Amino acid sequence: MKAFVFPGQGAQFIGMGKDLYESNNECKEMFEKANEILGFRITDIMFNGTEEELKQTKVTQPAVFLHSVILAKAIGDKFVPDMVAGHSLGEFSALVAAKAMKFEDGLRLVAIRANAMQKACEKNPSTMAAIIGLEDGVIEEVCKSITDEVVVPANYNCPGQLVISGSMAGIEKACAILKEKGAKRALPLKVGGAFHSPLMESARQELAEGINNTTFDTPICPVYQNVDALPHSNPEEIKQNLVKQLTSSVLWTKIVQNMGKDGANEFIEVGPGTALQGMIKKTLEGVTLSSASI
Q1: 290 in catalytic set
Q2: pTM, rounded to two decimals
Q3: Annotated active-site residue in 67, 87, 88, 93
Q4: Can you list the residues of the chain whose pLDDT is less than 50?
Q5: For residue 243, which of 226, 229, 230, 220 has the smallest C-alpha distance?
Q6: Which of 25, 54, 68, 150 is deepest in the core (most CB within 10 A)?
Q7: What pLDDT is stored for residue 125 in this prediction?
Q8: Which of 196, 197, 232, 249 is the catalytic position?
Q9: How far is CA 87 from CA 4, 101, 196, in A?
């Protein structure tokens, strides 16, 4: 069974999507439609901009979304999923590719999400850190033990890799304790703020309004969602889970395990980079991994 998976923020690179724009008229039209909806030429930044420009949350998120969704469209008949999932932002790409919502609606929601998250980051300077080489339970206990600052498990990426999220002081304190407890690495990430933590509450509220005003349809296959790692096809359930996502942990390890239990033996990553394939390789044995290509 085929599982198509969609990457999140951090997978971006200069030049992403340029081949699609130049080789396929339908893809070009979708990119130009996106420029119109966003109110600026995101394609100029994606194809020829600087790393600094592309790194801004309000640019990165729609850029990764566009590359993923337009690539899924471009592969045409090869996009026949038995199930889909997306890591954080990638969940929006997965939902559009699986026809749970229209391309234009998905892009508008991603733009709302990106701008709301950027505002929340500016209001509460915060960060994230990748913890390598410790059991999830140890990391969870350390996060719970820090009561004077916000620190929570944010992204369960694969066994032995968990990203924590919180205030600057909270992350610094947690990293020091986790190193003492034997973490191979406790690496602060170059991100705009504490994604998937309570510090994103203002962004969640803003995004919730957009999601509740958007029409969702039944997807063509089950969508494994970040907040509970379970397959969903009911549009109302999908919406509720999408609203919760910004302040909840990304249960990627469980998503991959559940997809494997449900029969997935071939995983195709749709979008920039190969980060998800690396995570899946560390989570499941004996599955085929590849990148979608036209």
Answers
A1: no
A2: 0.96
A3: 88
A4: none
A5: 226
A6: 68
A7: 86
A8: 196
A9: 11, 17, 12
